[in-house]
Amino acid sequence: MRTKSVVYTRQRKKKIFRLAKGSYATKKNRWRMVTQQVQRSLAYAYVGRKDNKANYRTLWIIRLNAAVREEGMSYNRFISGLKKANIVIDRKMLADIAVNDNASFKQLVAAAKAA
């Protein structure tokens, strides 16, 4: 007796159709268009996650540069001074300190200037 794959095929297709939900025109209800759109969307999502990390790093550097310039120093001298002073804090935490805790950030700038 021949086995039919209807149930499994429908389950597999439903999973892809769910991923294509919200797409424009026939990209949400025609099988060939759906598969193409989902493949493209997943590829862009992967690239977007990488871009997001770069965008956040850029934001932290911009915030640090603004905060350091208020103290009369440039960003690259600040980072160089921190490295010479053996202060290992990543840019995310430095930007957070600059925004939320001004007193301790001024101490970090002073330590970078001293080094």
UniProtKB/TrEMBL annotation:
Q: Name one GO molecular function term.
A: structural constituent of ribosome
InterPro entries registered for this protein in UniProt: Ribosomal_bL20, RIBOSOMAL_L20_CS, Ribosomal_protein_bL20_C
Q: Which domain of life is it from?
A: Bacteria
- Asked if the record carries the keyword tRNA processing, the reply is no
In the record, biological process GO terms are: ribosomal large subunit assembly; translation
- Keyword annotations from UniProtKB, A to Z: Ribonucleoprotein, Ribosomal protein, RNA-binding, rRNA-binding
What Gene Ontology terms describe where this protein resides (cellular component)?
ribonucleoprotein complex; ribosome
Write down the Pfam families for this protein, in alphabetical order: Ribosomal_L20
Among Gene3D superfamilies, the record links this protein to:
6.10.160.10, Ribosomal protein L20
Of which family is this protein a member? Belongs to the bacterial ribosomal protein bL20 family.
Its annotated function is as follows: Binds directly to 23S ribosomal RNA and is necessary for the in vitro assembly process of the 50S ribosomal subunit. It is not involved in the protein synthesizing functions of that subunit.
Identification of the protein by name: Large ribosomal subunit protein bL20
